[in-house]
Amino acid sequence: MATSQIEKVREFLTCVICHELYTDPCTLRCDHTFCRKCVTGYIQTRPEAVQSKTIPCAFCRQDTKVPHPSRPVEEWAGQIIPSIIIQGLIDTLGAEGDVPETSSTCCRICQQLGETTPGALCCPECEVALCDRCVKTHRVSPILQNHDLCDLSSRSKGRRRVKCTEHKSNNVEFHCKDCQKPACQTCCIIYHRACKTVVTIESMKPEMRTVLLEKRFVMGKRLKVRSKKVEMKNEKLRNSSRITELTVQNIKSICQTAINKIKEKETQLMDELNHITQTYAGQLRCGVKLEEIEMQMYRQHCEFIDQALVSECEMDLYDAYQAWESGAVELGDVRDTDTADTRRIDDIRFTADTDNVQHILDDLQLGRIDVTYQDQGTRLPPPVLVDVIDGKMEGDEMEPGLRDVTVLVVDGIQTVVVTDLVNMCVKSLYTRSNQLCHFKLPLVNSPWGVTQLKENQVMVAVSSQIVTVEVTPDLVLLSTVTTRKGYFSLAVLSPSSLAAGTTNCVDILDMGGHVLRSVTTHNNKTLFSYPTYMCVNNKGNILVSDLGKPSVTCLTSEGHVVWRYAPTGDRALSLPYGICTTGTGGILLVDRDTNKVIQLTETGEYVRDVLISKDNRDIFCDKYGTFFLCTNAQVKE
Length: 637
What we know:
single chain; Herpes Virus-1; flat; 36 strands; four-stranded antiparallel β-sheet; alpha+beta; 28% strand
């Protein structure tokens, strides 16, 4: 097929949005065709289209209705019928080799002349592909003849050149560490002549790789922690909804109880009022009856006297007089013998105790809502369990007896190194390619304490020996030093000295295992019993955890006691084991028998119990704020 015909076909098969050959072409109602992914991207740039649930044409703006607009916007373009004819034409021409190669593999200069010629070589400096003919022209040009050409196949793998923003013809090849700026050769001569540390970017590759590996490791760790925190907070959110519903029910229940009690008081008061009212009414009715009887007697006496007064017989008058004088007719009140002993009610009133009721209602306590806030200041945030690593390995003769732990980052890989007292070995546990890996270094005796010596080296106390092990992250035995004593715990003080704990003593050693000084007493009293765990704080002092004399002692490298933590009462230590320092200088201590991890200040003052967890032996805190708890068989991150 002729070149002009190829160009016409290519124009027909090119999407007007991405200007490339159609990929999964689909045709809208207006008969214009686009790549399906281009249609999806175009819809998302048109809010009015999303609102009207239509697909606008990027060429003529005519709308096509979406068959199922309730589905996500990303799936709208997938509902358009594919353009089978156009796809078939692309497939047919592609099979015949008539579809021209993409511009990235064609000679750029020939393309500018309207020709399509396959590229042979690539110029990374100019970032163009060149055919055999144009390669010759490129090489003889005085400006371009120093450019290194490479194969197109290795173009993507080649070195990317970045031009200097000020000196356009120069590549950026240098870095000034004093100014922290990239530079070309001209920049170095003009601006960085007085700078002391100007290096090539090529020479910085190992340093940049190390820094980026650490940054990648930190970001990965933070991502894992944040993921766990999000998971925990979502669970708390779900629990919060359930707790809120229960709390609402409880509040309504207690309020209803108070209302029922008030109604009970109302009923009681109404019953009392009714009883008193009935009694008062009865007494009044009885009084009325007595008064009526007396009124009847008075009427009869009056009639008897009236008859005597009108009678003309003096004897009638005399009989009335004699009856009065003899007392036969009395004027006293008639008494009701049945009610003589009953207190008569004079009046009934209800005095409302409004002030007292208001006071009681104001002071009425139906309950309280308690809110627990996260610790602030020097307190560590609540711990989040990120991972649990099994310390059991293939070939272990017995169940693991993990005793001491330290954590290194080797080539961006977090490596947990633990001593296994029971199986007489040192183990490294790490993850590579999302797979948990184990490595075991057998030893002649049971290992005890382990401490980091260098970025990829640890030292281990093994009976009357101290061995140095390289971490790759597998383990390689480098050297062995014989000591006069058998040590439980180790801590590196400096590149030339160690601290080591044994029965009743803490020794300061040189790297050859020789004792420089021993610390045994303080104020003429024995200082230690079993100093089985120790670490070094950010001031270079030694922190010793003693399970024989339950205490923590802070020593200088010269052996002087700075402070001692040995509380009594409720906070008394039972069996102090592992100890470490945090990035802020705080101290974490494992108290084995109480299952507690205790936080202390750097001056040995109690802060709080960080967590309660069973079977803990040792603890290690890395510089990224993560701490690791070593149990008999596991390491918890």
